[in-house]
Design a protein that fits this description.
145 residues, alpha+beta, GMP Synthetase, Chain A, domain 3, 2 domains, three-stranded antiparallel β-sheet, three-stranded mixed β-sheet, elongated, Osmotically inducible protein OsmC
Length: 145
Amino acid sequence: MAFTRSASTVWSGDLASGTGETTFETSGIGTFPVTWRARTEAAEGKTSPEELIAAAHASCFSMALSNILKGAGHVAEKLETTAEVDFDTSDGAKISEIRLTLKATIPGLTDEEFQTHAQAAKVGCPVSAALAAVPSITLDASLTQ
C-alpha cells in the first residue's frame, strides 16, 4: 500500500532575486517562504530545500530506529536527532554531506547494541535510501543512561 504526501512551491522571478513559498499540502501545517539567499547565505526567517531535507531525514531516522528498537525488545525513552545538510555551490550546486547526530536515552541497552541499531536505522530509513547519491552521510550516535 502506498501513501502519498504532497507539498507545493510557487516561485516568482529569477533564481538570485526571486522568491517562493512552499506549502505543506497534506498536513496543512503552513506555507513557508523560500529564497536563494536563504539557501546560500543567511536564512532570515526563510527555509530552503536543504532544511526541508534535514527535517525529513531527522524524523525518518528517528522513526526507523524506534521500529528497530521495538523489534529488539527495547523502547526509547528519548531520541533526539539533528540532521545537518550541506549545500555546496563551489563546483556546481549539490548536497555534499549530511550529518546525523543522535542523543538517545534507551534503558537496558548496551552501547554496542545501540550503535548496531543506530547504524541499521541510518541505512534502512527510506529517506537515507532516497538520498543515496549524497557522497557522505555520517552518524554520530551517543547513548545516555
